[in-house]
Write a structure and sequence with these properties.
single chain; 394 residues; alpha/beta; 7-stranded mixed β-sheet; 6-stranded mixed β-sheet; 19 strands; 26% strand
Amino acid sequence: MKNVKALIIGAGIAGTTAAMACQRVGISATVYEAYDRTAHGVGGSLGLAINGFDVLRTLGLDEQVRATGWPTNKIALWNGNGRQLLIADDGTIEITAERSRLYGALYDETLRRGIPIEHGKRLVGVDHRGEEVIARFDDGTSASGTVLIGADGMYSAVRGLVAPDAPKPHYVGLTGGGGYTEPMDLDLDPTVFHMVFGKRAFFGYAGLPDGRVGWFANVPTPVEPTGDDLAAITPAERKAALLDLFGGDNTPAARIVAATPSIDLWIPMHHMDPPKQWFRDGMVLIGDAAHVPSPSSGQGASLALEDGLELAKCLRDRPDRASAFATFQQLREKRVVKVIAAAKKTNSSKAAGPVGRVIRDALAPIVFKMFTKPGSRAWLYQRHIDLDEPVLVH
């Protein structure tokens, strides 16, 4: 396509990366963010898989992002009795990053590369004038472009316009959150991320190079709590509840929770299947606006990064919007659905009952060794999107 101007809705990981990918292929982009402030300082940590990091390397962002976290290339699995089920050294995670620092690095680099980001621009509607897409915002302003890219998350306004009958977010029966401790004397190897199938809840943790510990917990919660339910629980009450949940485990979980100054972030966990069609009338969905694997996948950010780069290539190489968007969905859909399905299986193991835990722990060494054999997950992690190679239509 020639003379493309992209309106990108959402200034998170998907939106900023898509903007930089568009710039690399000669597409002008402006990012519009609903909130009147940035998300600097917000969020816990995330593991960035090697397939997502490969996108960052392609866009020349690897060094900036590497500085937001620390290398983590091993995973140790434990049960609540303190027995190690497996340690995997398959190098599938490139780094564990502090989410707020990752966001900040991508946001700052977007601006440094001359791509505008406008805040306080909550999308309320889209109009069309010939081949022009006109975004209307709640402050009374509007913007026009050739394509509108919805990168505005799981509760996307763009998704409601593109696919009003699309599947809604599905609660997976777990709530989750996490935080960072004060420096501790656990003497942890920062290259190892520990995953604990506790007796009553799941716990993950890793030592930071500065002596702090970053952690998260997934707690089986049969009925999805509302925002009001969660707001009614104070950070102190949340800490007390977690200390009770992990107090009977022979793991460092309770010590780590106790050493955390405040536990402010706690949310229900969801997955969301993609709509039948990801595009309509000059609009297209990427990242969590299009598909949400549950956090258990470890692929939410990486899939969003892949989406942005793949879409930019399609816009560059296909002759019109419809064929660009159709090719983009064709290239992404099967992979996304497979990741979501795999994460659903992981969620069930985190919420196992007493009998299920015994079976899970007995089979875990066999199952996880099978999954960590060379090549067993090459379809997921060995994914390289060559920016210079033309898009091939199958």
